[in-house]
């Protein structure tokens, strides 16, 4: 349990959620078209919704939000590794220039790695002792004052 983990995870979920939403709504439909890979559109939309659901869960301090944020970080990191492998075997670049692709894949890998680490450090209230739970809910200064119910 580290101080600021919820804030860091929330901060990283916003830009990745915005990017995933923009890609799911504007890039994937035009790229896929009516071909056999049409299944990618609902998958991309579900991935984008997962960002915002994880953000809501972390902001409200729910255990499922932490778990969903870790899952989003793992999936995003896997997509970044897949993008790097695709670039290595000769797939087309993601940007307008050839040099944009590796930078984008490295940026995705870094951001999603930090997201998964930060979300993994968010405390799970069910696994804490009563004193640690009061510290997490009320803060360290008020943990001794709050009475157990």
Provide the succession of SSEs. HHHHH
The stretches of 5 or more residues where confidence is low (pLDDT under 50) are none
Helix content: 55-70%
Average pLDDT over all residues: 83
- Structurally, how many domains make up the residues? 1
Question: How many helical stretches?
Answer: 5
- Number of β-strand runs: 0
Distance between the termini: 23 Å
Q: Outline of this structure?
A:
With 149 residues, the protein is an all-alpha fold. It has helices at residues 5-32, 40-59, 63-88, 100-120, 130-138.
List the helices and strands and how they pair.
Layout: H1 5-32, H2 40-59, H3 63-88, H4 100-120, H5 130-138
Could you explain how this protein is built, in words?
The chain has 149 residues and is mainly α. The protein has one domain. The chain is 70% helix and 0% strand. The model has no long low-confidence stretch (mean pLDDT 83).
Features:
149 residues, 70% helix
């Amino acid at each position: 349990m580290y101080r600021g983990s919820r804030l860091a995870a929330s901060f990283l979920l916003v830009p990745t959620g915005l990017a995933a939403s923009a890609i799911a709504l504007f890039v994937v439909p035009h790229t896929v078209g009516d071909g056999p890979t049409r299944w990618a559109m609902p998958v991309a939309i579900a991935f984008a919704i997962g960002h915002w659901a994880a953000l809501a869960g972390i902001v409200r301090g729910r255990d499922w939000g932490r778990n969903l944020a870790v899952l989003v970080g793992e999936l995003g990191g896997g997509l970044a590794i897949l993008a790097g492998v695709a670039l290595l075997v000769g797939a087309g670049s993601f940007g307008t220039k050839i040099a944009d692709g590796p930078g984008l894949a490295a940026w995705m890998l870094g951001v999603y790695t930090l997201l998964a680490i930060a979300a993994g450090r968010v405390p799970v209230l069910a696994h804490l002792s009563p004193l640690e739970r009061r510290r997490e809910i009320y803060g360290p200064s008020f943990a001794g004052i709050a009475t157990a119910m």
